Amino acid sequence: MGLPKDDAAILAARWTEGVLLKRDVFSTVERGRFRADDSEVDAVLRRLDQVPVWSYPLARHLFARERHALTLARDLDAGPKLLWAGRKALVRGFVDGVALHLAKPHGDLAYFRSAKAALRRLHRAGICHNDLAKEQNWLVGRDGHAYVTDFQLAVCFKSRSRLFRIAAYEDLRHLLKHKRSYAPAALTPMERKILARKSFVASLWLKTGKKVYQAITRGLFNFTDREGGGRRLVNDAPVLLEVIRKNPEVRDTAIVAFADRRTGVGLYAFVEADNVALEKQLRNELSSTRGVRPPEHIQVVHALPRDAAGKPRTEILQLVAMNQLDLIEPLLTSDADRAFMKDILESRKNLRDRFNFESSELNSR
Question: Are 226 and 233 in contact (CB under 8 A)?
């Protein structure tokens, strides 16, 4: 199932392929550059030409919802700007920032004020996002402001009907859940009341519709979206971690997922050990493990990046695996961190799907 000729012609002339971000049964999403108004800008492309025939009707419906919502939200500065839309593809602007679950804005009250303001602008335009429970759909911009993305489940209302008010309430409640995770002390008494009271639609959905949804997506569609990692991150990674940690030379390890043009979802294992030659031995051990595929990439590092609690910073490792190197810089807090990461970046394994997004500041050090 290819792209229509007019879509294909425009993309051939104006789109420069970059890093694959995600591929599932509903669309392919990649980051690259788009020529608009005689200049190239960083952008994100969603396309339906590689969607299976059996999931295409639903994929097409989700695509149409996103296109409509982005059209209405074009000038709201609450999310990515729609740059172009065809029949089976659309290009939206790239927001210079990282997802909430990667940025982890603990105590950042300005961010959550910005998030509330962005949500208010969307609601005033009649747009309810309907998928803000996912931290992946909230972005922390390099400018510190909040943006939302992935409007596939969005609903656009022409009036402030009862259904609109319920959907808007749930959007706000999901935002406040994230605020409770990262800035709980800043919750107001009213916000705490909202958190404690689901709408009757949300309660009904949790008891009935969500179970049906999960049965269809995880059963029929074989679709699991844990931070974009799918079933391999959910099912295979724990088994692989156990095997790697049995090796006496391994001090610690972390496995993250990345989008892969050939397999859909790949796994990247970062292994903390002193013996760089350990990679070959680990690959042999993992290849003989029954029931799981070994990671596409194994990188032995002398030390994993860690947070204040001593846990591996998987949010940074995931960006390394995805070749989103320019997004790493805002997550680093010192020159020592930058020097530390420089060694890991120079030895990274996923070079097949790379693009010139490297942070100039990281490369200059």
Answer: yes
CB-based contacts of 78: which residues, under 8 Å, 6+ apart?
A: 118, 119, 121, 122, 147, 148
The predicted-structure confidence for 307-355, as pLDDT tens digits, reads as follows 888 889 888 998 999 888 888 888 887 777 787 788 888 888 877 655 5
Confidence band of 363 (pLDDT split at 50, 70, 90): very low
Residue 36 has pLDDT above 60, yes or no: yes
Tens of pLDDT, residues 205-251: 555 555 555 555 555 455 555 445 567 888 889 999 999 999 999 99
Q: Which residue has the tokens 């990282």?
A: 98
Q: How far is CA 302 from CA 222, 253, 276, 345, in A?
A: 37, 11, 8, 13
Nearest-angstrom CA–CA distance, 119 and 173? 11
**3-state secondary structure labels for all residues of the chain:** CCCCHHHHHHHHHHEEEEEEEEECCCCEEEEEEEEECCEEEEEEEEECCCCCHHHHHHHHHHHHHHHHHHHHCCCCCCCCCEEEECCCEEEEECCCEEEHHHHCCCCCHHHHHHHHHHHHHHHHCCEECCCCCCHHHEEEECCCCEEECCCCCCEECCCCCHHHHHHHHHHHHHHHHHHHHHCHHHCCHHHHHHHHCCCHHHHHHHHHHHHHHHHHHHHHCCCCCCCCCHHHHHHHHHHHHHHHHCCCCCCEEEEEEEEECCCEEEEEEEEECCCCCHHHHHHHHHHCCCCCCCCCEEEEECCCCECCCCCECHHHHHHHHCCCHHHCHHHCCCHHHHHHHHHHHHCCCCCCCCCCCCCHHHHCC
Report the relative pairing of strands 28-36 and 155-156 from DSSP bridges: unpaired
Please tell me the distance from the alpha carbon of residue 104 to that of residue 111, in angstroms, as a whole number. 11
